[in-house]
Amino acid sequence: MTAVLSCRSLSKSYDTGAGLVEAVKDIDLDIRKGEFTAIIGPSGSGKTTLLSMLGGLERPSSGEIFIEDEPISQRFRDLSDYRREEVGFVFQGYNLVSHFTAIENVILPMELAGVPRSERKGRATELLLSVGIPEERFGHRPLRLSGGEQQRVAIARALANTPPILFADEPTGNLDKKNADHVIDLLRQMANNTGLSVVVVTHNERIAGKANRVVSLNYGRVESDSANGTGGDEGGSQRSADTAH
After folding, report:
1. CB contact at 8 A, 159 and 112
2. Which of 30, 133, 182, 220 is the most exposed place for a label (fewest CB within 10 A)?
3. Are 214 and 182 in contact (CB under 8 A)?
4. What is the pLDDT of residues 193-217, one digit of tens each?
5. Distance from C-alpha of 177 to C-alpha of 182, rounded to nearest angstrom
6. How many Å is the Cα radius of gyration of the chain?
7. For residue 191, what pLDDT band results from cuts at 50, 70 and 90?
8. Is 170 helix (H, G, I), strand (E, B) or coil?
């Protein structure tokens, strides 16, 4: 099966002034349609750096990222085009616009992408309902929503432009266990039911246990990559990573 997203020999180094720090080193990874992948590892293992490169927030120092076997550096003139067309992002801190209502937050990326005005509200309504936000909460600003509701709005916003891939960086870090489970279950259902590829960075092994696949990083390298038998439908073949690193 062709990968929706893949990377080859992906590396990222930072010059700290005191020397070069290799945050990510020669990573090969394939993400297939409908996969719910958890990326785990200790602090400083390169999880967020890898996610930032795969999502087009940072450029790699070397290596290449591919969308359906085509390098994104050739397919897109700018990384902002890649982010707008191919990926959605969910962050630990929600990152909602505080003076916008829930539905306005979901409509915003559609406005930026040039979606016709006549389509925006209907799609935003559909997305908010799909993530469990009732209509009576649509007009509330973020501070009037619970943490779990804010993260659900953030997921709806990330899906506003129907990206094939959703990246989530510690999306349950600010939530209690009940809300954390609801958010992860929602992401898993979306992957299993709609074919959305979901990649979640987490330090929480209980959360990772809900994924179809778990990729473990250590010192910037892939330590293991395997199907997770407890993560529900394993959806598609799983490629074991090269663990010779």
Report:
1. no
2. 182
3. no
4. 999 999 999 988 888 999 999 999 9
5. 9
6. 18
7. very high
8. coil
